[in-house]
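[Q] Does anyone have a clean structure-token version of this?
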Amino acid sequence: MVAEHVVLVETVLPLDTRHGRRRLADALEPLWPLAAPSPTPPPQAGEGPGVRVLAIDTETTGLAGGTGTAAFMIGIAAAEPDGVRLRQWVLTAFAGEAAMLEALASSLAAADLMVSYNGKTFDLPLLRDRRRLQRGPALPEPPHLDLLHPTRRLFRRAWPDCRLATSERRLLGLVREDDLPGSEAPRAWRDYLAGAPSDELAGVLRHNALDVLSLLALGPALARSLHEPTSCGADACAAAAIWARCGERGHALSVLEAARERLDTRGALELARTLRGAGRVAEAAAIWERLAAAGSREAAERLAKYHEHVRRDWTRALDYARLLDQGPEARHRRRRLKRRLAAGQGRLDL
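[A] Here you go.
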């Protein structure tokens, strides 16, 4: 017990512990480009303690949020050179909430990066509100990587859903057995406070522990999927967009080119856009021509601009402009091209 009405359960797991088909040592792998800048590597043995990447998950009295909802359990996990340190605080009465949040604040202050799953929407706002109600100072908040968002971007087209259990099964090979559903956790905790045996509360602790350990393993697994997205069913366009946002346009182009044969219209348009940005305009135009022939209005618009401004071939530019919708911009483009042709400028193939 760390304070009155708060119990701390602390465990250190060896790095070679299996978590699905992964090892917990994977949690030491870099998260680039998901997290930018990539967090500092954990210290080596003998260099002193230091929490770098901190996974966090809460078990709460309800899922609706608001001031009537509180966290009765907070779990955090951090990969260190000697193992993964798992800490779980459990309230035995609401009077211990301030002490629990103070203990959490100390751990957050030592972290370089915090990872969660839907934590930006649920866990962190809830903890902020509870800290405010306890009249405590604001919780330290290191840079926060909510893994739900890149998971959705990468896999929403391929998976039936992007729940944590689905991510665990697909990316980590982890299938939970005899796991107490999270929806049952509030009842199990209330029953424990009312004097029931601790068996079901132990199930809540195990459920929470699996959550935070999965978060440590999922970050590197998602980062690996960005290098070869098609090998794990990820959306190559989404992977390329993540690389591009980090300024790694070469990686973005490589990912799209590797997936060229599997790209749909949306992906092919993104490949063409990226090729154009890399100065490979003729290759981009070849993709636009194929897509325009298949009925893509966006590809036709790109070709109208290409032939007007790059090739200076106003006849072909007008041919593609005629395929566009009847919006004001398209009408203006057609009138401008017709004026150029009527002026006898014809084609200047520079």
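[Q] Thanks! Anything notable?
[A] The radius of gyration is 27 Å.
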